[in-house]
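name: query_chain
kind: protein
chains: 1
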Amino acid sequence: MSERGIQSKVLSVSQVARTIKSLIEDHLPEVWVRGEISNFIRAASGHCYFSLKDESSQVRCVLFRSRMSNVEFEISDGLEVELLASPSMFEKRGEFQLIAQLVRKSGLGRLFELYEAQKRKLSAEGLFDTSKKQPLVQFPKTIGVVTSLDAAALRDVCKTLADRAPNVSIIIYPSPVQGNGAGKKLAEAVMLASERSEVEGLIICRGGGSLEDLWEFNSEELIRAIARCPIPVVSGVGHETDTTLVDFVSDCRAPTPTAAATLAVSAFDDIASDLQRFLAGLSKNIRGKIDVNQQHIDYLSRRLIHPGKRNMLYANELHQLQTRLNTSVRRLFRGKESYITGAKAQLYRARPDSQRGLASLKDWQKRMHRGMLGTLNHFQTRLSITKTSLSHLNPEQVLCRGYSIVRSEEGNILRSVKSVSVDDRLTVQLSDGALDTLITAKRLRRS
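structure:
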C-alpha cells in the first residue's frame, strides 16, 4: 500500500472519539443495570459522579442535577442500586459511561414490574377511563375518610375540613394503611361506605412513604372496590411525587391528604363571600330593573292624554290641514292662470305673417340674382385676363414671330450645338409645320 493511501485513512483523536460516541448512542438502547455504588462525588454544579461495580467489572456513571428530584433516598458508597441508564461516551477523556435516568434501590425492580403489569391489566378493563369519573358534590353535608385511626394524615384531613367547612360532618371508616392485608381491609372500608350511603364524598388517604409502604394502595381488591363505589372518591395518598393505582381509579386525585380535604369541600368563608357577592349583585340588578321600569312608567305617563283633549288636538290639526289645503289650491289656480296668459301671449307673438314672408322671399330672390350676376361677371373677367396671359406663353405664338424649335431624332429639344454631331438628323418645328434636316457642319458662336 502506498504512503498516500495510508495517509488518506488517518483520523484525528477527536474524530475517532466522536465516531465511537455516535455508534454507542445510536445503537445501544436504555438499559437497567444493577451494581454497587463507589467513588460517589456530588459536584458543585449539582451533578453526581460515581462508579457502578460488581464482582468483576465497573463502569463510570453520571446522574445530572435535573434527575436528582426523582431519587427518594440518599445515595452513598456501598449502596446496591438499579439504574435505568443510556450508554454514552465522555468525548474529552474518551471514557465510556452510563448516563442515569432513574435510580432505585436494588430489589425494587420486581415491585415496579408488578406495578406496571397491574396498571396495564386494570387500564385495559377500562377502570381508569376518565368517562367513568364522577363529579364531586360542591356542598356536601357529610364526608367519609378511609384511613388509619393512628395516621397523621387523619388529623390533617379533619383539621382542614373543620377549618374550611365546620358545618360538614365527618365519618371515619378505619383501616390499616400499611402491611400485608391492608389492601383488603381498605377495600372492605370502601365497600362499607358504599353500602351505608351516608356520605356524599369519600377521602382515601395516608402520608408519604417508600414504594413498599404504599404498596397496598395498588391492591386489585381496593381498585375494584373504588371503581364500583357510587360515592365520588378523592385520593390523597403519599406526597406529591408518590403515585399509586388508587390515584388513577379515583374520581379526583390530590397530591397530599390535606389537598384531598381541600378538594372535597368548599370553604365556608369562600361560600359566605360568594353568597355575599351574589346577594349584592342581585340587589343591584333588582334596583336597576326598578329604576328602568320607573323611567318607562314616567315616559308612558307623559304620553298618556285625556280623550277629550286628544280630540281637541285632532280637531285643531284638521283645521290647520284644511286651511293649508285651501291656500295651496288657490295658489295652484293662480299659478295655472298666469301660465295660460303667458302661453297665449307667446302664441300670439309666434303667429305667422304670410304677406310679410312673401315680400321678404321676393327681396331675397332679387338680392340672390344680383349677387350671382356680379359673381359671374367677375369670374368671366378673370378668365379673359388669364386666357390672354396664357396666349403670351404659348410656344406657337413665339413660332409665329419667326422662332423655331429644334428636336433630335429621339424628340429631345436641343439647347446647345455641342449636343449634336455632323450627319445627325434633326426636326425643325415652325409655326405652320416641321422640317427634317441633316447636319452637314457645326459652327460654334465666338464669345
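note: Residues 306 and 362 are 87 Å apart (CA to CA).
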